[in-house]
């Protein structure tokens, strides 16, 4: 945020940020596997996700990737962290299947599924899809093992957990998609994935998005971690917001009511779902709605599996943001709400 783009430190900080966000995604996948949870969908470019995931997964590898991506690939409403994990899992599997090196082919194209679609796609509704094909030149998988490949804890590796492909299958199903696999011994393995495409234009969405532009407004942040408050304050002040903090729901409600009575209301409030030993966002939003039915509350949580994050509007929130916070997403969430 403060380093110049042409400085070496900026590049290193950018790489560090990507690595930490990858760790965040991996952690959220473990939570998704252990507790379940709906994906947090947003309009996204699958093409960009594929390029980033391939670059990350094959870094330092002796395996080369052939990317064949449709230039007009349709966008999709997806949880980008989860779909990135799917691609990562499949690329890692392909890499490990070729210990002496080789080529993994990654294709992505637009596909229409009609009523008379092949038997393998009977689980899909007719419509527009983005189809991904990931093919390796590895040792292949026997027909017997292929039947169990998506089962939990089943693995063909000596030190494998058996969770990667099960998690991959679960994520695709929760996106109303389909995944299929074919394999031939000593020839290779091919995974095919279908994800529902969006009717929205990504370019229209991007042009409507102010991105890293200055903001304005008075923001109440409900957060009990002092170190995190310092970070949030720095980000919001940098973009031009006025910020006030509350340690829990009780303080947040009191601060919000006091601001209303002083005719200096808050333009938005960011509320952490979980406050150890105190009132969290779920209880506090109910009381705030009684004070002000028009309250603009954004729910925040590091637990992607929480049902409130997936269906936040049903609980009275008007926006959501995943923790740990990113500069761009924090600013964007507020601009979407405040306008």
Automatic annotation (TrEMBL):
<dbReference type="InterPro" id="IPR003594">
    <property type="entry name" value="HATPase_dom"/>
</dbReference>
<dbReference type="GO" id="GO:0000160">
    <property type="term" value="P:phosphorelay signal transduction system"/>
</dbReference>
<protein>
    <recommendedName>
        <fullName>histidine kinase</fullName>
        <ecNumber>2.7.13.3</ecNumber>
    </recommendedName>
</protein>
<dbReference type="InterPro" id="IPR005467">
    <property type="entry name" value="His_kinase_dom"/>
</dbReference>
<feature type="modified residue" description="4-aspartylphosphate">
    <location>
        <position position="272"/>
    </location>
</feature>
<dbReference type="InterPro" id="IPR001789">
    <property type="entry name" value="Sig_transdc_resp-reg_receiver"/>
</dbReference>
<dbReference type="Pfam" id="PF02518">
    <property type="entry name" value="HATPase_c"/>
</dbReference>
<keyword id="KW-0597">Phosphoprotein</keyword>
<feature type="domain" description="Histidine kinase">
    <location>
        <begin position="79"/>
        <end position="199"/>
    </location>
</feature>
<dbReference type="Pfam" id="PF00072">
    <property type="entry name" value="Response_reg"/>
</dbReference>
<dbReference type="GO" id="GO:0004673">
    <property type="term" value="F:protein histidine kinase activity"/>
</dbReference>
<dbReference type="InterPro" id="IPR004358">
    <property type="entry name" value="Sig_transdc_His_kin-like_C"/>
</dbReference>
<feature type="domain" description="Response regulatory">
    <location>
        <begin position="218"/>
        <end position="338"/>
    </location>
</feature>
<dbReference type="InterPro" id="IPR036890">
    <property type="entry name" value="HATPase_C_sf"/>
</dbReference>
<dbReference type="InterPro" id="IPR011006">
    <property type="entry name" value="CheY-like_superfamily"/>
</dbReference>
């Amino acid at each position: 945020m403060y380093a110049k783009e042409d400085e070496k430190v900026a590049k290193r900080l950018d790489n560090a940020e990507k690595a930490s966000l990858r760790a965040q995604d991996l952690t959220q996948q473990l939570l998704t596997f252990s507790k379940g949870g709906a994906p947090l969908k947003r309009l996204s470019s699958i093409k960009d996700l594929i390029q980033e995931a391939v670059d990350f997964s094959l870094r330092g590898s002796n395996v080369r990737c052939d990317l064949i991506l449709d230039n007009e690939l349709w966008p999709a409403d997806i949880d980008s962290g989860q779909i990135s994990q799917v691609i990562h899992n499949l690329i890692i599997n392909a890499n490990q299947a070729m210990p002496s090196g080789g080529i993994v082919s990654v294709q992505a194209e637009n596909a229409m599924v009609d009523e008379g679609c092949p038997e393998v796609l009977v689980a899909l509704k007719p419509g527009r899809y983005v189809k991904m094909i990931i093919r390796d030149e590895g040792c292949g998988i026997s027909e017997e093992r292929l039947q169990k490949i998506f089962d939990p804890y089943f693995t063909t590796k000596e030190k494998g957990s058996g969770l990667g492909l099960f998690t991959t299958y679960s994520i695709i199903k929760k996106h109303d998609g389909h995944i299929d696999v074919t394999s031939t011994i000593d020839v290779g393995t091919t995974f095919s994935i279908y994800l529902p495409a969006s009717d929205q234009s990504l370019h229209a969405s991007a042009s409507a998005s102010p991105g890293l532009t200055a903001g304005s407004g008075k923001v109440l942040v409900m957060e009990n971690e002092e170190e995190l408050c310092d970070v949030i304050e720095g980000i919001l002040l940098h973009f031009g917001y006025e910020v006030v903090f509350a340690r829990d729901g009780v303080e947040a409600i009191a601060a919000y009511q006091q601001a209303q009575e002083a005719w200096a209301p808050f333009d938005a409030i960011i509320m952490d779902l979980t406050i150890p030993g105190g009132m969290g966002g779920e209880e506090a939003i109910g009381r705030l709605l009684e004070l002000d039915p028009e309250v603009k509350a954004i729910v925040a949580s590091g637990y992607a599996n929480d049902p409130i994050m997936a269906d936040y509007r049903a609980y009275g929130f008007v926006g959501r943001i995943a923790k740990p916070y990113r500069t761009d997403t924090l600013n964007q969430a507020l601009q979407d709400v405040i306008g």
